Amino acid sequence: KLLGKVLPTEVPAWVEKCDIGVLPLRRDIFLYFAFPNKLSEYIIMNKAVVISRLKTIRHYFSEEALAYAEPNAPGDLARQMVRIYHDRELRARLAARAKEEYAAIRWDVMKRRYLDAIEDLIGPGHRAAALFHGAEAGCLEEPSSKESSHSISRP
């Protein structure tokens, strides 16, 4: 069923009603290394996911975590969608395994790696996390006016 436009605040309720998440990505130069945010959202919401078999996705998730379809192959995508839809136990296994494999790359883990990398670049004695407020809320914000007077220089 196609709904048309829905408010962003309504999206989680609609996703909750779904049996599977579907992410058909083309294989092209722009998407070959893509990692769609919607994939993380589906995993967090315990949805089995049918997704195009792209290099970046395969790097992070096994065949036991996601139902892969060949990119640019609508017939393969349709077969996977029907297969996953009709097998409730398989959907549950895929969703559980995807959540396990996602644990290593969830936002709080990657945020720490990102901030550590920044600290490595700006040198010892600087705290990259102090530059950003709200990082624990899932976003990186500009420094407050109090901190904006500080300058950062390379060693």
Q: How would you describe what is shown here?
A:
- With 155 residues, the chain is mainly α.
- 46% of the residues lie in helices and 8% in strands.
- The chain has helices at 11-17, 37-44, 55-60, 74-85, 88-102, 107-122, 128-131, 145-148; strands spanning 20-23, 48-52, 67-69.
- The radius of gyration is 19 Å and the shape is globular.
Summarize the structure.
By secondary structure, the chain is mainly alpha-helical.
Summarize the SSE layout with pairings.
Elements (H helix, E strand, L loop, with lengths): L10 H7 L2 E4 L13 H8 L3 E5 L2 H6 L6 E3 L4 H12 L2 H15 L4 H16 L5 H4 L13 H4 L7
Parallel strand pairs: 1-2, 2-3
Beta content comes to: 5-15%
Average pLDDT rating? 83
Query: How many individual helices?
Result: 8
What structural class do you assign from the helix and strand content?
Answer: mainly alpha
Helix content: 40-55%
Main sheet overview? 3 strands, parallel
Order of helices and strands: HEHEHEHHHHH
For the record, give the distance between the C-alpha atoms at the N and C termini, rounded to a whole number: 58 Å
Question: How are the strands of the largest sheet arranged?
Answer: 1-2-3
Task: Sum up the overall morphology in one term.
Answer: globular
Low-confidence stretches: 133-137, 140-155
Number of strands: 3
Rg over alpha carbons: 19 Å
